[in-house]
Amino acid sequence: MAMTIKGKVTFDFTYVLTSEEEAMHLEGMRNLTKRVAEGEKVEGLAVALVKAGLESGLEGAVRLNLKQGIQKLIKSELKDEGVRVGNVAVRV
Questions:
Q1: Is the distance from CB of 33 to CB of 50 less than 8 angstroms?
Q2: How far apart are CA 12 and CA 88, in angstroms?
Q3: What is the pTM of this model?
Q4: Which residues, 6+ apart, have CB-to-CB distance to 12 below 8 Å?
Q5: Are 80 and 51 a contacting pair, CB within 8 Å?
Q6: Higher pLDDT pick, 58 / 84
Q7: Number of domains in the chain
């Protein structure tokens, strides 16, 4: 006999960047933005990160990257356990 169990998970979190991590993110954003400015073709998340960085600064880009990373992590970890995941809504 098969069983289907549905559920919903919500939780709050706090993410603290050290000064060193913030500097690494800033350098990565500089390099990515420079590549885009020089005409290199980038797609997907890279484009969205540049746009978020230009509109909201480094914090906006880090928020977007964190959001995408959490969504991807949740989906991949639960897939390994045989759980089918619907929409993963992450608000950062």
A1: yes
A2: 14
A3: 0.83
A4: none
A5: no
A6: 58
A7: 1
**Rounded Cα distance, 75 and 78, in Å:** 5
Confirm whether 11 is domain-assigned.
Answer: no
Q: Mind listing the pLDDT tens digit for each residue in 29-76?
A: 999 999 999 999 998 999 999 999 999 999 999 999 999 999 999 988
Among the listed residues 8, 28, 12, 32, the one whose alpha carbon sits nearest the alpha carbon of residue 20: 28
- Look-up: residue for tokens 């979190």? 13
In the prediction, which pLDDT does 16 show?
95
**Degrees to nearest 5, angle at CA 62 with 40 and 36:** 10
- 91 occurs within a structural domain: no
Closest CA to 65 of 42, 47, 85: 47
Structural domain span for residue 31? 19-80
Residue 81 has pLDDT above 80, yes or no: no
Distance CA 53, CA 63 (A): 10
**Phi, psi at 8, each rounded to 5°:** -140, 135
